[in-house]
Design brief:
197 residues, alpha/beta, five-stranded parallel β-sheet, 6 helices, 37% helix
Length: 197
């Protein structure tokens, strides 16, 4: 299987990086062909241009070589993994920009009319989203309604044809004990392995 793993966190020593490394290692160790991207380290440009804002007409190939490369890789993937923190109930800007620029019409979905239903074009049928958070689960649900669940499992991934969306939240990260983090890394590996089953 071909799996794309995308990390969105600027801190090289972050727990998000540890999750990313664990997932990539686990998948490769199980024979998957992994395309791994640390979006911050690669300097992915998140700013969408005016000519990239079309939602119905198919994109005619990006003039940005980095975006074009990501789009070409995406077409061959069987599964996706996203690793990022919960910042203000959103993914970091670099990943939001990646979604807006890479998951373009004609690449990730097809829409006949603005009012119509999208047809997902991605071959990848499953995705794993690993989030870190410092908000306790009860407060997240009570006060905010878990916006990241809506973003990934309702708004983004089903739109492009990913029907099996799994999301795990590791919390609260700040102040967590080494034993807790080790258990979380083991769970991340287990979830990554399940993508291949």
């Amino acid at each position: 299987m071909r799996i794309g793993v995308y990390l969105a966190h600027p801190g090289p020593g972050s727990f998000n990086h540890a999750l990313f490394d664990a997932v990539v290692e686990e998948l490769r160790g199980r024979g998957a062909e992994v395309t791994a991207h640390d979006l911050y380290a690669e300097g992915f440009a998140p700013l969408i241009s005016a000519d990239e804002t079309e939602t119905v007409e198919s994109a005619e190939g990006s003039h940005d070589a980095q975006v074009a490369r990501h789009q070409a890789e995406l077409a061959a993937l069987d599964g996706l993994v996203f690793v990022h923190p919960n910042w203000w109930g959103m993914p970091p800007a670099v990943l939001t920009g990646w979604v807006q620029r890479v998951l373009a019409p004609g690449v990730a979905y097809k829409l006949q009319t603005a009012e119509g239903e999208p047809a997902g074009l991605l071959k990848a049928g499953r995705a794993l989203v690993l989030n870190t958070s410092d908000t306790p689960a009860e407060r997240e649900e009570r006060e905010f309604g878990d916006p990241l669940q809506s973003i990934w499992a309702a708004c983004v991934l089903p739109y492009v044809g990913v029907t099996d969306v799994r999301r795990i939240v590791f919390r609260t990260v700040t102040g967590s004990a080494p034993e807790e983090r080790a258990a979380w890394l083991a769970e991340a590996r287990e979830q990554a392995a399940a993508l291949l089953g």
